[in-house]
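I am sending you the entry underneath: sequence plus fold tokens. Let me know what the token row says about the fold:
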Amino acid sequence: MKTIEELEDLLSKPSEMLIEDMKKLDGDLLILGIGGKMGPTLGKMAKRAIDEAKVSKRVIGVSRFSDERVRADLEASGIETIRADLLNEEELKQLPKVKNIIFMAGKKFGTKDHEHFTWAMNTYLPGRVAECFKHSRIVAFSSGNVYPLTSLKGEECSEEFQVNPIGEYAQSCLGRERIMTYFSQMNNTPLLLFRLNYAIDLRYGVVLEIAKKVYSGQEIDLKMGAVNVIWQGDANEYALRSLLHCSTPPKVLNITGPEKISVRWLANEFGKRFNKEARFTSEEEMTALLNNASQAHQLFGYPRVTLKDMIDWTAGWVSHEGSVYEKPTHFQERQGAF
């Protein structure tokens, strides 16, 4: 895989299961925050699945669209777009009231010294969205960061695990969940809380960050000694298929891959592919942010893209100097200061 066109085609390719689910889903789809890293390919996947299902549904994407090229690309793919600031009450109220909402808007990076904006985006806005679309079903993106760090020798956090977020970003994500749960129960709004932990695209993500460090000879910090990841295309599909599993009280789903991945092992795998020695700093701590997504895998099946696929594709992408987003995950952060 060498071009962005090839990459985005793969990231937005629907499975037969998603196509069948689109036949069962009634109503149009509104994606709030479509302009982010995942939104464009999620929107395109939805449109492709609808077209292949031969059903009639609108896909509408809402964003501030700071990059006009993103908007033009979405519209060329058959997705209607609306430019709006979701924190503007009047603009929010003017959005079309459709049956299905995927709520992706939020704030993570740059939280430090801008905590007020993070809380506005991650906690205040979700309440306004839940009230505005109380007659819809909503899949709301959340984060695995709502869980505490757990022992590398113990079990990962399942949906039944006690939440205990570290830092203001993670706290504001839990705030999102609590506020949306309140409105779900008050208004009988079907809701699913989508706790995503490290989606992977060849242009960003944990796997790319480690690959780049190995390729350039930089040291890799091992204090966060293990991670979970999932291919962004699989996460996109899970989000769209989750629309059929919204409920009140809300359903909670952890979304990530099945493996507990050693950061040291991952770096050494890239070392083999690049014929370079991976270099490390520090040692693995005894705890890490690790989530168990077996419930999602039971509902939707295992991710279609394997970890080895992600490693191989990323190695090729880095070797050929493919385009990347300069948006680090800060997965090594242990104090929640994003």
